């Protein structure tokens, strides 16, 4: 067993706002990179195969576990103050400077833009290591659900800004002004953390050296990695073909854009807040099971819709919003709250990062398999199979989550 790290003497609301600001900032960058940039590049006449190279920018997020021990050893020195603020400050400044360069270069200059955004992704993912570690150390167990509501809700809000508002600004004011406005926003979102929690770190002496080996020796980490893989396959993989499915059943792109933008934002943030409350009252395991059952029902609905003509597309649209944003957010608030509980506060940035990287890697692999299955077996069989996987994951998640996920 490990001893808990001291908690900073700050009210929970101040911690939620500071941590949430960083999560929003990171998702603003993600929204610009994976939603905004491809649309702008296409409008500039860049070929689809070259636009596909944007996906390579995701590599720092999938591989950040490799440098997470070095970040944690710097953040938590043997003697002295917690250096989370220094990591965040450096990462935010690199991100802002990278965005300034991207704005000046322009979207048609593919190689320089990809190089700069890869550096920004490295900086943002490093900030994420420090932020996750700080959150695990700083939030008491009873506030883990709310902390992850800030994380998941912040992700939806940041993605809406980076993938939605950013494009509006590009259309109204041009690429340079839009990117620089986003750079300023990222800086402002980092200020609550740097001016708040980062300035209230006590002097400490630590006898633990963070490492991947120390993480993998713990049974909680191995259980968490298994839970991440199972849950991602059950919750996310089936949804990867939802966009193409909606196009093929006749929904127009503006409707799908609304689903991903306004509808996704409202449903995602609302479900994240609801998840924070439910984790506190029902416990992590019960919320995980609820989300799996609801997702399975949605996937079976998509399957039946594919083979049964004449069903309402309005209802389909509502189920799609609930499934892709609401249910997903609800489940991942609970899952990430459990990840917090499994993480060792002495090296929380390493442990939590391992769980996130498992999520990213399984999602990438699942996307390939989902495309293959939908293409060769059809949407009906694909969604029915995905719903069956979601239901089959229930006993596995109950077993892996264990009894430590009771209400607090």
TrEMBL record:
<dbReference type="Pfam" id="PF13000">
    <property type="entry name" value="Acatn"/>
</dbReference>
<keyword id="KW-0472">Membrane</keyword>
<keyword id="KW-1133">Transmembrane helix</keyword>
<feature type="transmembrane region" description="Helical">
    <location>
        <begin position="225"/>
        <end position="246"/>
    </location>
</feature>
<feature type="transmembrane region" description="Helical">
    <location>
        <begin position="258"/>
        <end position="279"/>
    </location>
</feature>
<feature type="transmembrane region" description="Helical">
    <location>
        <begin position="379"/>
        <end position="402"/>
    </location>
</feature>
<dbReference type="GO" id="GO:0008521">
    <property type="term" value="F:acetyl-CoA transmembrane transporter activity"/>
</dbReference>
<comment type="similarity">
    <text>Belongs to the major facilitator superfamily.</text>
</comment>
<feature type="transmembrane region" description="Helical">
    <location>
        <begin position="175"/>
        <end position="196"/>
    </location>
</feature>
<protein>
    <submittedName>
        <fullName>MFS transporter</fullName>
    </submittedName>
</protein>
<dbReference type="Pfam" id="PF07690">
    <property type="entry name" value="MFS_1"/>
</dbReference>
<dbReference type="InterPro" id="IPR011701">
    <property type="entry name" value="MFS"/>
</dbReference>
<feature type="transmembrane region" description="Helical">
    <location>
        <begin position="349"/>
        <end position="373"/>
    </location>
</feature>
<feature type="transmembrane region" description="Helical">
    <location>
        <begin position="148"/>
        <end position="169"/>
    </location>
</feature>
<feature type="transmembrane region" description="Helical">
    <location>
        <begin position="87"/>
        <end position="105"/>
    </location>
</feature>
<dbReference type="InterPro" id="IPR024371">
    <property type="entry name" value="AcetylCoA_trans_1-like"/>
</dbReference>
<feature type="transmembrane region" description="Helical">
    <location>
        <begin position="316"/>
        <end position="337"/>
    </location>
</feature>
<feature type="transmembrane region" description="Helical">
    <location>
        <begin position="111"/>
        <end position="136"/>
    </location>
</feature>
<dbReference type="GO" id="GO:0035348">
    <property type="term" value="P:acetyl-CoA transmembrane transport"/>
</dbReference>
<keyword id="KW-0813">Transport</keyword>
<dbReference type="InterPro" id="IPR036259">
    <property type="entry name" value="MFS_trans_sf"/>
</dbReference>
<feature type="transmembrane region" description="Helical">
    <location>
        <begin position="286"/>
        <end position="304"/>
    </location>
</feature>
<dbReference type="InterPro" id="IPR004752">
    <property type="entry name" value="AmpG_permease/AT-1"/>
</dbReference>
<feature type="transmembrane region" description="Helical">
    <location>
        <begin position="51"/>
        <end position="67"/>
    </location>
</feature>
<keyword id="KW-0812">Transmembrane</keyword>
<dbReference type="GO" id="GO:0016020">
    <property type="term" value="C:membrane"/>
</dbReference>
